[in-house]
Amino acid sequence: MYSQIRKTLCSKLMIKSPLPKQGRHGKEDVVDSLMRKPNVNEEYKEAFRTKSYIEICNKVQDQLEMRSLTSGDLDLDHVHDDEEGRQYLRLSEYLLQPHQETLTSMFDHMTSNHHQFLLNYFNISLEATKICESLFTNVHQARNGYRAIKTVTKLMKRDSGNRTHNHYHRAYKTLASFARRGNPFPTTTLEKFLVLHDNHVNLLQELTSQHRKTKRRTKFIRLIKRGMTSFIVTACGALVIAFLVLAMHIATAGLAAAPGLVIICTLGLFMMKKTRRDEREWNVARLDEVVEQLDMAARGVYIMMNDFDTMSRLVRRLHDEMEHRKFVAEICVRKGKNEMLKEVIEREFQMHECCFLEQLEELEKQICLCFLDINRSRRLLVREMVKWC
Fold first, then answer.
1. Quick check: is 235 in a domain?
2. Is residue 135 within 8 Å of 311, Cβ to Cβ?
3. Which CA distances in Å does 115 have to 9, 111, 119, 214?
4. Is there a domain that residue 125 lies in?
């Protein structure tokens, strides 16, 4: 069963052989790379040019187009319930790797205590992807709202002599509809970010604590085994010397001491081999692997925390921007002054149009990058886990 699970996971994850070991100049290469001054902005931009990131974006776009075709003219502007939004857009089922069902069957055959911490990591990463799904829906709603404002700006670009009462009526009607809409980035989304952040912090603390405990336990076991080996070698050496001294003083007892000498030497060699064999078996080597798995999970949680902190700031900015736009639209409708409508539209909407679209695009990029980071961390962790399946 374990071998079958391992083959299935390896085929799905396209796991290749481990990375090659460092050569003669491996340490020098590492030192050189650490000595180089990192350019954070350039590395951030480079992440958006990688092949894996482009593949994620293409998959998201394909999924959005497919959902649009199968759902017809479904209006996401009126979809504010998370469950309804997920029924429309289920990116986690399409993008998340490996799938949660595969991991569930894998954990069913694992009984170690540390696997519960790893399972918590996979569950939290799944919840993170669901929040990313809802964010894509929020972005879609915001773009629809932008198209409504775009219609008003086009109407106001007409010459004042060509603007009729119907044009103003249509503009006010569009602004009123925009003002009545809910904010596509509601406060509930920000609250979910806070809850998820707390869950990330708690899980990171648990993983770090378990990592330290396991590492200390491994060091303690190794210390005990080395102490036992040293004790056995010293004891055997002392007995051998004692038998040799006894044999020299009592020549007649030499033949009697020989069998005992052979037995002691054989016993010492056997204990040394057994100790070394135990060192290579589960109790130490397995703990080393547990330490590595916990470390990978902790790093995955840390990366998720950074990604969601960035998205949280972007969502908060977009929330404030949408509230401001809704307020301006409501004021325009309430005042109903045709002569000031064009000026307000140009000053409050048209001038900030590029900035608003850039913020939406930046959020979309960050969501795709978060998907990419989650998948990479999950695949690396599963690759370590299947070694022991």
1. no
2. yes
3. 17, 7, 6, 13
4. yes
* Terminal Cα distance for the chain, rounded: 9
**Which residues, 6+ apart, have CB-to-CB distance to 288 below 8 Å?**
218
DSSP state of 132: H
| Number of separate domains in the chain | 1
CB burial of residue 361 (10 Å; 0-12, 13-18, 19+): exposed
231 falls within a domain: no
The domain in which residue 331 lies consists of 47-209+298-388
pLDDT digits (tens, 9 = 90+) for 36-88: 445 656 666 677 678 888 888 888 777 777 765 555 444 444 444 444 444 44
Q: How far apart are CA 218 and CA 206, in angstroms?
A: 18
Contact 366, 50 (CB under 8 A): no
Cβ atoms of 97 and 376 closer than 8 Å:
no
pLDDT band, very low/low/confident/very high, at 370 (cuts 50, 70, 90): very high
Predicted TM-score (pTM) of this structure: 0.69
